[in-house]
Write a structure and sequence with these properties.
- The chain is of the alpha/beta class and 596 residues long.
- The chain has four domains: 54 residues, no CATH class; 71 residues, Elongation Factor Tu (Ef-tu), domain 3, CATH 2.40.30; 237 residues, 3-Layer(aba) Sandwich (Rossmann fold), CATH 3.40.50; 127 residues, Lysin.
- 38% of the residues lie in helices and 19% in strands.
- It has an eight-stranded mixed β-sheet with strand order 12-16-15-17-18-14-19-20, with helices on both faces. Strands 5-6-9-8-7-10 form a six-stranded antiparallel β-barrel.
- Helix 7 crosses helix 8 and helix 9 runs parallel beside helix 10.
Length: 596
C-alpha cells in the first residue's frame, strides 16, 4: 500500500465492505462493473470499489480486499512469471537436463495471468538480520515470506500486533515501510542426485565453481520424525575404521552418536575418518559445517576430494561469515537432503559440526526476537531445537525401503565440562557419546577417547560377529589399567603381576593409537585386536609398537590373504581363524624382534 494511504475497515455500520483499487488512472464504469462482479463471485459479498490514485503504478493495478492483494502491476506479472518458471523447472526436470528455450516457450504458451490472493504486510523495523512486520494476520510459524526486493525470510515469532521474521539475504534492500507478502509455504531446500560431490549453502545454492545444480525435488527443511511403526531395530554396523570406536563403542546405521570434547581434541578428525571409511560401502555422506572458518571448510573439501570421498559426499556450509539465520537452518537443510536419499532406500551418514555453534546462532536470533534467555543464557526451547533435528535419524523398516540416516553430532565443551547445558541436552537425545579427553590428546593418545565416559547404547547389536569375538575383554582390561595406573603413580615397588598388567595396558593404549586419515578395514581391526588381547605384543617395546603394527598387517596381507578376504566378506571369525592369527602373529613377532 502506498505511503499516506490507510485502508478503512471492511465493515462500517450502514455501509458495504470496501475493496481498494490502486492505479494511476481511474477505472471507467464498465471496468468498475467487472471488478465488482469479480468480487461478488469470489467472496459472495457486495463490495464497494474505492479507487486510490497511485502514481508509482505505471502499468496495471493492485486490488486489495481485506488482507488479500491481487497484484496485476507490471512488476507483479513478472514475478508471477518467474515463480511459474521456477515451478516448471522442478516439475519438468529430466535426467538429461532442461532445455531452457523449450521451458520458456512452454511456459509462455500455458501461462495465464492468475489472480492469486496474497496477504501483505508492512515492515515496521529491520536490523541484524531480523525484521518485524504487521498486517500478516494469517501467517503461520515457519512460513516463508517474500519482500518486494525479492529477499526471502522465515517467520519465527508470532505476536498479537506483529510477526518476527529472520532473513535469508542482505537486509540493505529492506527498509521501514517495505511490503512483505506471504507464500503459504514452509522453508525448503532442493534435493537430488546431482548434489553429490558439491558444496552448497544452507539454501541449497552451490557455492563451489562447478556450475548450477538441477534438482530432482524440493523438500521442506522441517519434517516430522519417522514414527515408531516406520522404524526397525539398529543392527547393521556403520564402521568408522577407527579401532577404539569400532571395538568398544560401535555405531549402527540409524544411530545417533555424539562426539564431544574440548576444542582441538580431534572431534572433526573422527567424523572425517568415518566419511573416508564409507568408500565402496554404498553410504552417502553429508557434512554440515556450522560457524566454521571458510578456509577450514575449503581445506576439508580439498582433502576429501583428493582421497576420492567427495564422489559420495555433500558439504553444506554455513560459515562463520554467514548470518545467524543461515547457520540456524543449515543442519535442517542437510537433514532434508539426507532424508531424500533415506526414503529411496539408501544409507546416509550426516555430520553436524557443530551443534554448539548452532545453539549460539539460535540464541542470537532469539535474543534479537526479544525472547527471554533461560539457563546459561539459552532460550528454554533450545532442547526442542536439537531433539526435533536428531529424532529424524532412523533406520526405516523394509516395507518403506529400509534406508537409514545415521547422525554424528559434534559438541564442544569448556574444560571438559559435560554437565553444561547444551552437552547435557544432546547427551540425553543421542544414543551414546564418544568423549575426547584433552589430557589424553596432549599425552599423544590419538584419538583421545576416554574409555570410561564414552558409551554406545546400541552396543554389540551393531557389531559384526568377527569384531565382537575379536574384542574380547579389551574394554575391561583398559579400565583396570587406568585404575591401576593412578594407584601406582606413588609407588615404585611393584610385584611382577602388577608390572605385567601395566605393561599390557600400556601396549593396548599404544595399539589403539591411529593416524588421522588412515581408517582400518575390518580384517585389519580383527587382526590387531586378536593379537593385542592375546598378549602377542607384550615383549615389543612401546616406542616400536607403531612400526610393528604396520609390519604385521603387511605380513598378513602377503601370507594370509585368504584369511583377510574371508573376514571382510563374511564378517565372521571362527575359532580356527582366531588361533591362526595368534600363531602367525606370534611367530612373526619373534622374527621381527631378531631383526630390529
Amino acid at each position: 500500500m502506498p505511503k499516506g494511504v490507510q485502508r478503512m475497515p471492511d465493515k462500517i455500520e450502514g455501509r458495504r465492505p470496501e475493496a481498494y483499487l490502486y492505479s494511476a488512472a481511474a477505472p471507467d464504469e464498465a471496468r468498475k462493473k467487472r471488478f465488482e462482479d469479480f468480487l461478488k463471485n469470489r467472496y459472495h459479498k457486495d463490495y464497494e470499489l474505492v479507487w486510490v490514485h497511485d502514481e508509482d503504478i505505471t502499468s496495471g493495478f493492485r486490488l486489495a480486499v481485506g488482507h488479500e492483494t491481487y497484484d496485476w502491476t507490471r512488476e507483479g506479472r513478472i514475478q508471477q512469471f518467474k515463480d511459474m518458471l521456477r515451478k516448471k523447472a522442478v516439475e519438468d526436470e529430466t535426467p538429461g537436463g532442461t532445455d531452457l528455450i523449450t521451458l520458456y516457450k512452454n511456459t509462455l504458451e500455458s501461462w495465464t495471468l492468475a489472480a492469486l490472493p496474497e496477504e501483505e504486510g508492512t515492515v515496521t523495523m529491520v536490523g541484524d538480520g531480523i525484521v518485524f512486520a504487521d498486517g500478516l494476520e494469517s501467517v503461520v510459524y515457519g512460513e516463508i515470506v517474500v519482500f518486494e526486493s525479492g529477499i526471502r525470510g522465515m517467520v519465527q515469532d508470532l505476536r498479537p500486533d506483529c510477526v518476527g521474521i529472520i532473513l535469508f539475504g542482505d537486509e540493505e534492500s529492506i527498509m521501514e515501510g517495505s511490503r512483505v507478502r506471504r507464500t503459504k509455504k514452509t522453508a525448503g531446500v532442493p534435493v537430488g542426485e546431482d548434489f553429490l560431490g558439491r558444496v552448497i549453502d544452507a539454501l541449497g545454492i552451490p557455492i563451489d565453481v562447478q556450475g548450477p545444480i538441477i534438482p530432482s525435488d524440493y523438500l521442506p527443511i522441517e519434517a516430522a520424525a519417522p514414527e515408531i511403526i516406520e522404524r526397525q531395530a539398529v543392527d547393521t554396523p556403520m564402521n568408522t575404521g577407527i579401532l577404539c570406536i569400532d571395538s568398544m563403542f560401535p555405531i549402527g546405521r540409524g544411530q545417533r552418536e555424539l562426539i564431544i570434547g574440548d576444542r582441538q581434541t580431534g572431534k572433526t578428525a573422527i567424523a572425517i575418518d568415518t566419511i573416508l571409511n564409507q568408500k565402496n560401502n554404498d553410504v552417502i555422506c553429508i557434512y554440515v559445517a556450522i560457524g566454521q572458518k571458510a578456509s577450514s571448510v575449503a581445506q576439508l573439501v580439498a582433502s576429501l576430494r583428493k582421497k576420492g570421498a567427495m564422489d559420495y559426499t555433500i558439504v553444506v556450509n554455513a560459515s562463520a561469515s554467514e548470518s545467524a539465520p543461515m547457520q540456524f537452518i543449515a543442519p535442517y537443510s542437510g537433514t532434508a537432503l539426507g532424508e531424500y536419499f533415506m526414503r529411496k532406500g539408501r544409507d546416509v551418514l550426516i555430520v553436524y559440526d557443530d551443534l554448539s555453534k548452532h545453539a549460539i546462532a539460535y540464541r542470537a536470533l532469539s535474543l534479537l526476537l526479544e525472547r527471554s534467555p533461560g539457563r546459561e543464557a539459552y532460550p528454554g526451547d533450545v532442547f526442542y531445537l536439537h531433539s526435533r533435528l536428531l529424532e529424524r535419524s532412523a533406520r526405516l523398516s523394509d516395507e518403506i525401503g529400509g534406508g537409514s540416516l545415521t547422525a554424528l553430532p559434534i559438541v564442544e565443551t569448556q574444560a571438559g565440562d559435560v554437565s553444561a547445558y547444551i552437552p547435557t541436552n544432546i547427551i540425553s537425545i543421542t544414543d551414546g557419546q564418544i568423549f575426547l579427553e584433552s589430557d589424553l590428546f596432549f599425552a599423544g593418545q590419538r584419538p583421545a577417547v576416554n574409555v570410561g565416559l564414552s558409551v554406545s547404547r546400541v552396543g554389540g547389536a551393531a557389531q559384526t560377529k568377527a569384531m565382537k569375538k575379536a574384542t574380547g575383554s579389551i574394554r575391561l582390561d583398559l579400565a583396570q589399567y587406568r585404575e591401576m595406573e593412578v594407584f601406582t603413580q606413588f609407588s615404585n615397588d611393584l610385584d611382577e603381576s602388577t608390572r605385567k598388567r601395566l605393561v599390557y595396558g600400556q601396549g593396548l593404549m599404544h595399539l589403539l593409537r591411529q593416524n588421522q586419515g588412515q581408517p582400518y578395514s575390518l580384517h585389519e581391526q580383527v587382526i590387531l585386536l586378536v593379537a593385542g588381547t592375546a598378549h602377542v605384543m607384550q615383549e615389543v617395546p612401546l616406542v616400536k609398537i607403531d612400526r610393528f603394527r604396520r609390519d604385521l598387517l603387511t605380513y598378513f596381507e602377503h601370507t594370509a590373504s585368504d584369511l583377510c578376504e574371508r573376514i571382510d566378506t563374511s564378517g565372521l571369525l571362527s575359532d580356527e581363524d582366531k588361533s591362526r592369527i595368534v600363531e602367525i602373529a606370534g611367530s612373526y613377532k619373534k622374527k621381527w624382534l631378531e631383526n630390529v
